Amino acid sequence: MNQELNALRDQIDTVDRQLVGLLAQRLALVANVGEVKSRFGLPIYAPDREAAMLAKRRQEAEACGVPGDLIEDVLRRVMRESYSSENDSGFKCVNPQLRPIVIVGGAGQLGRLFSHMFRLSGYRVEIIERDDWYRAPELLSQAGMVVVAVPIDVTCEVIDRLTMLPDDCVLVDLTSIKSKPLAHMMAVHRGPVLGLHPMFGPDVSSLAKQVVVCCAGRDESAWQWLLDQMRIWGVRLHRVTAEEHDESMSLIQALRHFSSYVYGWHLEEEAADLQRLLALSSPIYRLELAMVGRLFAQDPALYADIILSAPRNLEMIRRYHHRMGEAIRLLEAGDREAFIQQFHKVADFFGDYAGQFLRESKMLLAQAHDSRHHESL
Predict the structure, then answer these.
(1) N or C end of the chain: which has fewer CB within 10 A?
(2) Are 66 and 120 in contact (CB under 8 A)?
């Protein structure tokens, strides 16, 4: 038995080595693609090309008896690495005549990411931090664009100090709230204004497929080049008003972060055995626990500022608390039918999205299961 297994395993090892060689060849080709895209100013993310390629590979795989989901999983992972590799080629500069870009808070994590992307695109970037504000008058007076990338709690204060910008300078902020910063930018600067909210952390390896929310301020024609530049980086832009953005963020960010914060707090107060919880958890519960734990590996000031950034967030949390109380009363009454009825009502609200989320979550859970190491008992 061992001889037969070893012979088959040797053959599998040979095939695996061939796969490694093919992947290296593919990444080398991707590097060439990145160089061509850089020269011609093409976005690194081409959704139509990606969808068509995946559909074709699925069809070819299934014709060979290989599950379509398998080849799609493999290719999506390879493409994620490919997008990161394409960054090495740099990007075409959409606005080469632009005067220097000044990033206030450019030494922070998000500021460093955008500094890096602008420099990869051929722009001159200057950075201002708290300790070198003495340089601000000179740098700001010559800026073609100023990007504010400072913590939420000081964003408006910093914006109010930007009184020396040229009239044609584009003023942008990267804050996760939009109404107040946008209003302050409009008040302090009479030139072009744009509010941005990158919906990703500074540790991403590529901006391909990452979402940036855009809230228009003033003089769109003066900052359209910036949107075009981000599209070349592979960014997916989503335009909403500042009010729509902040209303959505109460649910997307403030409420979710608060829920994770309280759940983590509850686990700590209950002295939960995290190792045992992980060992006993199926992939979905492990992912949920990971998302809670992820919060506590990061800067607490950031999450405090997000949750406390607007009165509407507290109002939303209060409504959530009230509905949780209503749900508890159903349980206290032992009202099984009322619980099921409410469940159906919520299911109707989700509609077709429920099925979509079920399919998406199955893929995530499969990946989480594959990466899990099981100890033998």
Answers:
(1) C
(2) no
pLDDT tens profile 283-301: 888 889 999 999 999 999 9
**What pLDDT does residue 28 have?**
87
**H or E segment to which residue 342 belongs:** helix 336-350
Confidence of residue 374 (pLDDT cuts 50, 70, 90): low
**H helix or E strand, kind and range, residue 197:** strand 193-198
Q: Are 260 and 288 in contact (CB under 8 A)?
A: no
Give the separation between CA 42 and CA 38, rounded to whole angstroms.
Answer: 7
Cα–Cα distances (Å) from 226 to 16, 135, 222, in that order, read: 43, 25, 9
pLDDT tier at 376, thresholds 50, 70, 90: very low
At 179-194, the pLDDT tens digits run 999 999 999 999 999 9
Complete DSSP assignment for 100-117: PEEEETTTSHHHHHHHHH
HSE on the CB side for 298, CA within 13 Å? Answer: 17
CA atoms within 13 A on the CB side of 164: 12
Helix (H, G, I), strand (E, B) or coil at 193: strand
Quick one: which of 172, 250, 177 has its CA closest to 216?
Answer: 172
Q: pTM, whole model, 2 decimals? A: 0.87
Spatial distance between the Cα atoms of 94 and 208, rounded to a whole number of angstroms: 17
Half-sphere exposure of residue 192: CA atoms within 13 angstroms, side-chain side = 18
Task: Please tell me the least confidently modeled range out of 84-88, 123-127, 181-185, 253-257.
Answer: 84-88
β-pairing, 211-218 vs 193-198, is antiparallel
Q: How many CB atoms lie within 10 A of CB 139?
A: 18
Amino acid at 139: L
Length of the chain: 377
- pLDDT, tens only, 17-59: 999 999 999 988 888 888 888 888 888 888 888 899 999 999 9
Residue 132's identity, in one-letter code, is D
**Count of other CB atoms within 10 angstroms of residue 187:** 12
